[in-house]
UniProtKB/TrEMBL annotation:
Signal peptide: none annotated. The modification N6-(pyridoxal phosphate)lysine is found at K31. The keyword Magnesium does not apply. Pyridoxal 5'-phosphate (PLP)-binding protein, which is involved in PLP homeostasis. Keywords: Pyridoxal phosphate. This is Pyridoxal phosphate homeostasis protein. The keyword Isomerase does not apply. It comes from Pseudosulfitobacter koreensis. Belongs to the pyridoxal phosphate-binding protein YggS/PROSC family. Residues 19-214 form the Alanine racemase N-terminal domain.
Amino acid sequence: MGLQDIQDRIAKACADAGRAADAVQLIAVSKVQPNERIRDVLEQGHRCFGENRVQEAQGKWPEFRETFEGIDLHLIGPLQSNKARAAFGLFQFIHSLDRPKLATALARIAQEEGHCPELFVQVNTGEEDQKAGVMPAQADDFIAECRGMDLPVRGLMCIPPVDEEPALHFALLAKIAERNGLGGLSMGMSSDFERAIALGATHIRVGSAIFGERVPT
Ligand SMILES: *Cc1c(COP(=O)(O)O)cnc(C)c1O
């Protein structure tokens, strides 16, 4: 596996689904990966990466940005309100907007800073206790609330339960997005991104299939 292989598989999945090859953005999830592996993917020309912790991202990306231009960073993990300002300085996209308190914090900082990362509302499609995300039944209200604060909500994100067929969750997410007029769908990881593309994913989050297994730190 590796970057080229994943890009080929994305192109094929798009063709199979009758979608344009550039309809899907590949977010290379670099959390916990050694810097040499990240540098290697940067040197192959890839510029779109995902991290799940603000602090970890702060530790490596400012330096990569001195060497490589045009890097887009996506925050795909939970965001605490007190880390929101730091996230603004680092990320162009946040995929984990999931509660009013965070929405309020982001709206306040956006006003102060004069810009805001593009946002995805995370939906807990499996209604799992331990998982972040707004419940499907609350999603419409929460999206409206965020829009009422002038937040740039671009789409929805989900992480399906490990032991369930992901396609059911991707289809549910697509349905909620459609009825709310949202174009962005952040769904699909190493093991299921082709199914996500078939169901309309616009952003897939692929880590281990590009970089190899995550090395425990
Ligand atoms: C780690 C992570 C991924 C990537 O997982 P892989 O299985 O390595 O592709 C995708 N999305 C989120 C939210 C993650 O935390």
